[in-house]
Amino acid sequence: MASSIFSGVKFSPILAPVNSGDSRRSRCVKDRNKVRFNPGSPRLTPNRVRAEAQSSIPYTGLWAQPTANRGRLKRSIVLGQRNAIFRKEATGTSLSQGRKFCFTCKRSQPGIRRSLPSAFVDRSSFSLLRSRLTSSLRKNSQILNATVGPDEPHAAGTAWPDGIVAERQDLDLLPPEIDTTELEAFLGCELPSHPKLHRGQLKNGLRYLILPNKVPPNRFEAHMEVHVGSIDEEDDEQGIAHMIEHVAFLGSKKREKLLGTGARSNAYTDFHHTVFHIHSPTHTKDSEDDLFPSVLDALNEIAFHPKFLSSRVEKERRAILSELQMMNTIEYRVDCQLLQHLHSENKLGRRFPIGLEEQIKKWDVDKIRKFHERWYFPANATLYIVGDINNIPQIVNNIEAVFGKTGLDNESTPSPTPGAFGAMANFLVPKLPAGLGGTFSNERTNTADQSKMIKRERHAIRPPVEHNWSLPGTSIDLKPPQIFKHELLQNFAINMFCKIPVSKVQTFGDLRNVLMKRIFLSALHFRINTRYKSSNPPFTSVELDHSDSGREGCTVTTLTVTAEPKNWQNAVKVAVQEVRRLKEFGVTRGELTRYMDALLKDSEHLAAMIDNVSSVDNLDFIMESDALGHTVMDQTQGHETLVAVAGTVTLEEVNTVGAKVLEFISDFGRPTAPLPAAIVACVPTKVHVDGVGESDFNITPAEIIDSVKSGLLAPIEAEPELEVPKELISQSQLEELTLQRNPCFVPIPGSSVTKLHDKVTGITQLRLSNGIPVNYKISTTESRAGVMRLIVGGGRAAETSDSKGAVVVGVRTLSEGGRVGDFSREQVELFCVNHLINCSLESTEEFIAMEFRFTLRDNGMQLETVKEAVMSHFVGENMEVSIVGDFSEEEIERCILDYLGTVKASHDSAKLPGSEPIVFRQPTAGLQFQQVFLKDTDERACAYIAGPAPNRWGFTVDGDDLFQSVSKLTVAHDGLSKSEEQLLEGGDRELQKKLRAHPLFFGITMGLLAEIINSRLFTTVRDSLGLTYDVSFELNLFDRLNLGWYVVSVTSTPGKVYKAVDACKSVLRGLHSNQIAPRELDRAKRTLLMRHEAELKSNAYWLNLLAHLQASSVPRKELSCIKELTSLYEAASIEDIYLAYNQLRVDEDSLYSCIGIAGAQAGEETTVLSEEEEPEDAFSGVLPVGRGSSMTTRPTT
């Protein structure tokens, strides 16, 4: 049941970031670059698509959920739906691991994706009283503003061209009691800037920003943003900025010296910048030595003093070529097509940061060094430091000491000044390095001496490109719809783009305009769902995006329609028809009330969480806001300013302002309408026709235009108001159920008390009289917010052989149905929005889980939506409810009794679903090694290697309980190292005995083992042998099922994939011959403990810890598994790790592997040449598709 009215509607951010930790990591969306409101994403955050370099090592923490995609990153970037993504700390690279990965398609945004709920509010709150207005004016006039101006090197070209003036709002539409003169003055006031943000600049031009932030404690973020990216590359340099990112980062010796300090580092390259970042403790573990100077020194070497060694260049060349193969999915190629057509008039459409394969193969060290000399200097960079900082002057002194002398001798750093036509002139005619013919010129400087004499100047505007704007009255002709066909596509998708300059949000009036657009556009997706969801709609999805992009220097509005190929014309017609309806009739007063309140309530919640936002989220928000030219505010300021402007908004103005955003669709074809920047359809080459079979799918640009026009001619009528229920279960119904069932707490099995509370963890355990066990924890880390999870034993393992898929279908049906009592799905969704409730359902092999996120209101918690699902579908003893949030003990226990205790008791264990045992099939040649070949225009390859493992609690697929023999298990290696023997001779021997007797012994040791194996896979298969760019080891440890398994995934080229598989197997089997070193174990402990410490701030993580605490199907889970987690990790020895390792089956008879190869000749007798055997002219004359025009780069570690 989707619970957000904002699903499918996306905006760019203007307010403040929120902590990504309160977002479910499994709902991360990394394939889009703009903010999206949906059940998993309720937050307005800055947007950017970027090619990154990041570790793909999955989170192997103890409580990682055993789902198929856990820890893996989605790599597609659909520009038409640019969503914000969460930083996935689990995949971040540890400095101690020395990894460098680039996610060319990951677009990391600050903040989280949270649903924006709404509620009925007192309408009087919308009137702007004179006293409030005057107070706001007085208050904000006293605040200094430290915003970016048009001369900032990293501010996007956001000014409107001369002669194009945005229309003023019709102030006559305002209520008569508001003085228009005073209001006009108020709206012209500048927004307040972040009160704690410190900005400065060194004599060499290096700009720096410092922000104290206490989350996480005793740690800080240091990011060096160099304002150079793929947009600055010449025709024969495509991908060279990304290459420098790799070489500079991994070649840094000073970065390597941070090994063992607990620091993590990474890097990424985009169109407009390259960023190197380090996440570090403020002090070393065993002393009070300040780590700020060491971290800054490492960044100084990486950015400005790299060593371009031939060996490192060759190693990273192989890595990038492998990365290019890995990311070249069909989704990625679609994204490339969209960008190419959206920005066909400038270099953004043909300068994707990953670069061109044939050029990457040719560059020598001198070529790479020259590009670095041209762009990497302090005046073309900005340093961001955000973290647990107490002494800003000391940090400034550190910055001056480390960077102050860099570049003073040979660099000129004049401040850019606006020309005769203002900032826009700089945007249209960017500053270029002296001696170059220009960014668009084919002329080259061939003399090495000339490159040393270049007078390096930063660009006044980033990115330095010229756009063809989609504005009324432009003389540019409409570009015909573009069609991209590919055999790997299965569905029809069309994107209609509109491109305008970014409007900087710097005044209250700017903020007001953004608010009105958001209210207007938020109605579209929910309307479509309510109108068509109950029927059989012709579309799969219809989404609207209106987002700023600092990386592209523009604001893009996109209508994206996806459908089955046979329904594409009706789908386009319906989407255009609904856009017209919204534009012509506008939002209703009820919608205005709901959406306005949704934004205000969400803003209020963000303000309450101001002290819980992570440093990295704050930093990313500041970086993107600066790139767009927006004023940077903290959460409290963001809420106060939003409240101030909300009172000035009228229904007429909302509909007037919002309608202009949709004119490129609703008025399509009219002389006064803005021309779409591009229309791009992505379609399959073949479709299945009932009764005929497979046939060609044919579509023409004229047919696309006709389908759009059919939507413009279809009849429309105004949207009716929808009644929103005030409650799903009335108080009288609740009282009647209470009298009937007399809910109460009963003694917990194994004890004589009805309530168990642990003071150390704050966990309370209860059991209701209907048999439902409940765990809860009061947590204030996420202010006024809570999460609840209902877990039911069963899952897909409970399906019988003749009902495969029944659980999945049932859960999907429950989710899509969404009815509660007499209320429709639409009414329930609006009720959830009204009460800030977000619901999601999921099925795994073992369980069905229903999760609720909610915000605490003044009238207490609202958990009624749980009731119907609980009553109808679950048995008491087979369920468990866990709740974590910022509530009082009295409040939560009252709600538990009222809404869960009144559920009808069901104690019939015979009704519990049984499960057929999961077994590993007997090895056969055809099953153990499989190959899959896929015809494709581009070559790719990947492989999976899997084998059995025990479950989290020591049970094996053979039915053995390893704890019965753990003391007798032998360690088959050459013995412990001397230091380990000395350690175990002391008092820590008792800790080891305690660990081996603990029910979580195998969960702890398997998690540490996974970290060690991942590190070795990277070092050997990726770094030393150069066989892959992306390799990872992932454990699936079940709780209820008596088995587990592991999977090694590796991407490569067709010519190297077999060698890569063999190398992975060698690493898996090599832990005996190449013994685990103490430093490897220490590094693994430090990584997992750091993650654990950071995640404890998250309510969602506490839900994972509480899971199965009272589940009868997981009898070994007990409170000590949570309470003693840190000490259990610390007690683990190398001997313990080998005890776990010996339970992994890695022999040839136990391994299952599958290799997939895609290419034009895949599966044919002719084998693909390995890269070492490829002739030099293998790519001459070949126009790269998708891969060669790859999009952004990924983090380097």
Automatic annotation (TrEMBL):
The keyword Protease applies. Keywords: Hydrolase, Metalloprotease, Protease, Zinc. Residues 363-599, 862-1088 form the Peptidase M16 C-terminal domain. Pfam families: Peptidase_M16, Peptidase_M16_C. It comes from the Eukaryota. Gene3D superfamilies: Metalloenzyme, LuxS/M16 peptidase-like. Residues 220-344 form the Peptidase M16 N-terminal domain. PANTHER family: NARDILYSIN (PTHR43690), STROMAL PROCESSING PEPTIDASE, CHLOROPLASTIC (PTHR43690:SF33). Belongs to the peptidase M16 family. This is Stromal processing peptidase, chloroplastic.
